[in-house]
Amino acid sequence: MALTKEQIAQRIARELKDGYYVNLGIGIPTLVANYIPAGIQVELQSENGLLGMGPFPFEGEEDPDLINAGKQTITTVPGSSFFDSAMSFGMIRAGKVDLTVLGAMEVSETGDIANWKIPGKMVKGMGGAMDLVASARNIIVAMMHTNPKGESKLLPKCGLPLTGVRCVKKVVSDLAVLDITEEGFVLLERAPGVSVEEIQQKTAGKLLVKGDVPEMKF
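Below the sequence we write its predicted structure tokens.
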């Protein structure tokens, strides 16, 4: 059974380590804020000028002045700070962000990412993603394994305009957790009830399966 968006975020949250500074991209990545494991302290950074972002607010408790880069209402944690976008991108470009979680339209077996433009559709621009992929120490992609047509989004080579080259370290999709290595995608875990054969069928890029692949636990 394929994971929900919330389960993808929950699985990615397990990658967080105590003391990390983390930037969450638009879409599924923002949900990671709701699943930070107990007992660790991480600082969530939003590129529009916030350090110390908390989980999403409950309905009726939203503050329209508190938003993330995706214009969603958020909360803050004690000790949070606000600043302009110049300082925010100064943090990013200086390599102060330990982990970035991004969504993607396509990821290649070599770690390239395309997540900003579909030819023929109007977009506002690449935005902060170009700084994040160039400067982050570690990038995890949260995505659906296939597009609405059922075509693989994990490819030998991206067909869409690239955001970054050889920068993605790990992918968590609705079907699997995969490392990106010099050899290609390495299957680490599979969604509950999803077979290795299904993941192989839906992965167009080179996929390595080493031994028994455990199911994710929730």
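The first strand starts at residue 21 and ends at 24.
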